[in-house]
């Protein structure tokens, strides 16, 4: 599909501050957009495979490859997004060791010249992993490669309380996108009606916003999610004392109920 830009917002909703494993003062107010490059890097680079080294010992290898145009286009997406947010973009790489990251930093810096209104910083990925936990509010928009984005967005999801809260949009410059939660199939809880459906529901909101340009409809879904949380409903992963524990199905039904109430207000 060529959807090279994977947008993964990690927002700590006020209702869920205490579901975060971090202290309230660290988690409160976190609002980060991770822009992950999705179609390049070590996942796809050639050569890759299995072989034997000169001693005949079996080896396996992958290659981190990025071209200037691949970095340029993801950087532009990230700068455009940062421009509409706090105007701060942190590019995360491993340029102290990896040549592909050195090119990444160079190209992001060059693209930055076209966006003088955005404050660009660079951070090494190991430090970024630590800073995301130490002081996540320092981040506004993050741009990073495929594998670092995969790992850091899962880490960022825990600031919000649960990986079950994080939606994502995978888009390209024009044409269809792909919208899905950042989590996987959760095999350990499969078939038990325990999964948090909010990441999936919020992914539908991202589809409306980024895929179809239906901002108002997206906002209604987001509002229905916050109303459901305001009403105290929680799946197990975000459960807190005094809240109502529900399963995946019941949580989904509560969101639909809230959405129907919102629609009634708008239709009058
Ligand atoms: N977007 C994707 O396509 C995607 C993303 C991640 C993993 N995967 C795949 O999913 C499979 C399982 O991977 P994994 O176990 O490493 O990651 P996972 O995201 O499926 O699960 C990690 C942990 O998070 C929990 N979790 C995930 N979603 C949840 C939800 N909605 N509500 C509550 N808890 C939730 C799970 O129970 C598990 O404990 C693998 O095959 C992996 O390749 C796919
Ligand atoms: C399943 C896996 C290939 C996938 C990825 O790394 O792209 C997942 O971890 C994700 O974050 O969507």
UniProtKB/TrEMBL annotation:
**Function per UniProt:** Catalyzes the oxidation of 3-carboxy-2-hydroxy-4-methylpentanoate (3-isopropylmalate) to 3-carboxy-4-methyl-2-oxopentanoate. The product decarboxylates to 4-methyl-2 oxopentanoate.
- Entry keywords, A to Z: Amino-acid biosynthesis, Branched-chain amino acid biosynthesis, Leucine biosynthesis, Magnesium, Manganese, Metal-binding, NAD, Oxidoreductase
Per UniProt, the cofactor note for this protein states:
Binds 1 Mg(2+) or Mn(2+) ion per subunit.
Identify the metabolic or biological route this protein is part of: Amino-acid biosynthesis; L-leucine biosynthesis; L-leucine from 3-methyl-2-oxobutanoate: step 3/4
Tree of life domain? Eukaryota
Q: Name one Pfam family in it.
A: Iso_dh
Cofactor(s) this protein cannot do without: Mn(2+); Mg(2+)
Name the GO terms of the biological process aspect: L-leucine biosynthetic process
Q: Which SUPFAM superfamilies match?
A: Isocitrate/Isopropylmalate dehydrogenase-like
Q: Which reaction does it catalyse?
A: (2R,3S)-3-isopropylmalate + NAD(+) = 4-methyl-2-oxopentanoate + CO2 + NADH
* Homology family: Belongs to the isocitrate and isopropylmalate dehydrogenases family.
Report the InterPro entries cross-referenced here: IsoCit/isopropylmalate_DH_CS, IsoPropMal-DH-like_dom, Isopropylmalate_DH
The Isopropylmalate dehydrogenase-like domain sits at 1-255
Which residue positions does the secretion signal occupy?
none
**Sorted alphabetically, which PROSITE patterns does this protein's record hold?**
IDH_IMDH
A single MF term (Gene Ontology): 3-isopropylmalate dehydrogenase activity
Q: Report the EC code(s) recorded for this entry.
A: 1.1.1.85
Summarize subunit and interaction data from the UniProt record for this chain.
Homodimer.
Instruction: Tell me what this protein is called.
Output: 3-isopropylmalate dehydrogenase
Q: Does the keyword Cell division belong to this entry?
A: no
Metal-binding recorded as keyword: yes
